[in-house]
Design goal:
Blueprint (H helix, E strand, L loop, with lengths): L3 E4 L5 H12 L3 E6 L2 H9 L3 E4 L5 H15 L5 E4 L14 H29 L2 E6 L12 H20 L5 E8 L6 H12 L8 H13 L13 H11 L7 E4 L1 H12 L2 H9 L2
Parallel strand pairs: 1-2, 1-4, 2-3, 4-5, 5-6, 6-7
Length: 276
Amino acid sequence: MQKTILITGCSSGIGYAAAHGLKAQGWRVFASCRQQVDCDRLAAEGLETVQLDYADETSIETALAQVLQATGGTLDALYNNGAFACPGAAEDLPRGALREIFEVNLFGIHDLTRRVIPVMRAQGHGHIINCSSILGLVVAPWRAAYSSTKFALEALTDTLRIEMRDTNIRVVLLEPGPVTSNIRKNAIPHFEKWIDWENSPRADQYRGSLIKRLYETRDKKDLFELPPEAVTAKLIRILNSDNPRPRYYVTTATHIMGALRRILPSRALDWLLARG
């Protein structure tokens, strides 16, 4: 029988590549997007789509119900990929900004996952893959909000993996480093909504660093940057394994930072990360 997967955050980047890549591998893919206009675009490209907004519990419930109705009540895999960034100095992040990003990057993922687990328990198997980040391993200036959600996702996923050891549900972390995507472009509305950078004590640092990165050089490739298909390749390895590893690094940068986190003293790592 054709295997089925629900992938979130498919409007562009990692999710878009994963949806098309797995469809080419013979999977029945349900590609979700937050906005219906993106779902319509993907449907025109031949994908089955559902509208799913992690910030909306009703949206999550409705989307999963549509998928399960289409599959007859089964789902072989869930790939929690959707997320967004809200760049800014930690001291400039208001409570509302953190609440908003955690609703999507953590709480929504947890909500959808909890709804999928009973389905996988009933069928006796399943893969749950959560897309973390190099910023779930180490931090970086201006990225406190995003990194906080990814550190939390790592802990939640690790705990779930341990608790699922007595089942045939495999819980895995994917940890990409620099991957070509629209994340910086998509972060701009959140930055403009929440960060009063011109009245920040770090206004000059914003001008010299983050503002240029967001508005002037956002399309410039990072060191070790890979196309999103590199993540898809690891995702396929995970899905083809009955006993996948707990976590999979993508990009040289993630391998380097994963190693440095293990071997460097905290102050040495802080010095390195502060350089950006």
